[in-house]
Amino acid sequence: MTRVARLIFPKRLDRKTPSHFSPSPLPAVTEISSMDISSVLQGGYQHPLSRSWQARRHLTKGMFMYPIFITDEPDASVDIPSLPGQRRWGVNKLEEFLGPLVQKGLKSVILFGVPLKCTKDDRGTPADDPEGPVIQAIRKLRTLFPALYIACDVCLCEYTSHGHCGVFRVDGSIDPEPSAGRIAEVALAYARAGAHCVAPSDMMDGRVKAIKRALIDGGYGNQCTLMSYAAKFASSLYGPFRDAAGSAPAFGDRKCYQLPPQAKGLARRAILRDVGEGADIIMVKPAMPYLDIIQDAAQLAPNHPLACYQVSGEYAMIVAGARAGVYDLRTMAYESVESFIRAGCGLILTYFTPQFLDWLDE
Ligand SMILES: NCc1[nH]cc(CCC(=O)O)c1CC(=O)O
Ligand SMILES: [Zn+2]
Ligand SMILES: [Zn+2]
Fold this sequence. Notes:
Blueprint: H1 3-8, H2 11-14, H3 29-32, H4 48-52, E1 64-71, E2 77-79, E3 87-89, H5 94-103, E4 108-114, H6 133-144, E5 149-154, H7 176-193, E6 197-200, H8 207-217, E7 225-232, H9 239-245, H10 264-276, E8 281-285, H11 291-300, E9 306-310, H12 312-323, H13 329-343, E10 347-350, H14 353-359
Parallel strand pairs: 1-3, 1-4, 1-10, 4-5, 5-6, 6-7, 7-8, 8-9, 9-10
Antiparallel strand pairs: 2-3
Helix pairs in contact: 7-8, 10-11
The protein binds ligand PBG and zinc ion (2 copies).
One zinc ion binds at residues 153, 155, 201.
C-alpha cells in the first residue's frame, strides 16, 4: 500500500484489528514517518462530519430568499419554459403555491411584477399602481403568512414602454435624477403596502440615497430594509428572467447603467457608494462568475449583511448541465451555494430555494 492510500484508509480502522496488534504487511514505521507532520492536511479529516466542519458558516433555511414572479392575471399559474420548474403566479394562487413551502421552512421571498394587461409608459406608471400585481401580492402575503419576510425588487423595466430601468431625456440618454426619484416613489409605495424590504435593481446613480430619504420622510425609515443591488453586472445570464418578466429592452441594452463584467474597481466603488448612501444590505449579482466581487464586498462592507443573486441564467445553466449528464443537480447546486458562503455571503437569492428546503432536511 502506498503512503497516500494509507492516509485515506488508516489500516487500524480498516482492518478492525485491535490497536496493539501489528500485522506483518504493515510498512516499517520509518517508512511512514518520512511524511513530515507539517505535510498532513487532508489526512486529518477523513470523516464526513469532520469534513463538514471545514465550513466557517453553515447553510440554513433562513439564508435562502426565493424570487417569485407575480402576474396581473389573478388566477394564473403559467410555466416559464426558459426557467424550468418556475412559474408566473396570480395573487389568487399564492396560498397554494407558497403554503407548502412556508410549512417546510421558507423564510423569505423577493417579488417581481409581471404586468401583462397594463398600459406601459415612459416612466413606468403601472409600477406602483395599487391594483398592480406586486402591491396586491404584498398585502395578500402579509395576511396569509405573517412570518414570511417579503422583499420587493424595485425597477421600472417591467413597466416602461421602452423596457429600460430608468427615465430618458429627450435626447435619448438616461436621466439619473428623475429616474432615482421615480424609483424612490415606487419603493415607498411597496413599503406602504407592507414590504419588509425594497431592493432597487435599476442601477441608476443616486437611487439608494433617494430611496432611503423617501423611506425616512414617509415614516418607513425603521420599518423597511433597503437591499441594494450594489454590484450588478451587465450579464448574459439574465435572459430567462427577461423572458419570464417581459422586461427585455425594446432597443439597445443595459450596458450604460449596469457594470461591465471586467469592472472590479467600479464594482468596489459602487459597493462603497451604496454603503455611504444608506443601503442596509449589499448584494452582488450574478453570483458564481463574480465570487471575487462577493469577497471584495465582504471586505469593503464588513458590517453589512451580504447577499448574492444566483440569477436565472445560472439556474438554467445548472439545470441544463444536470440534464446533459455533466453532474448531479443537487451536488452541483450545493457546490454553487457553498461557494457563495465561502466568499462571504449570508443571504442567497436563488430559484433553487424550494429544493434546498427539502435537501436541508435530509
Ligand atoms: N432590473 C430588472 C432585473 N431585476 C432582476 C433581474 C435579473 C434576475 C435574474 O436573471 O434572475 C433583472 C434583469 C435585468 O436587469 O435585465
Ligand atoms: Zn429589476
Ligand atoms: Zn430594470
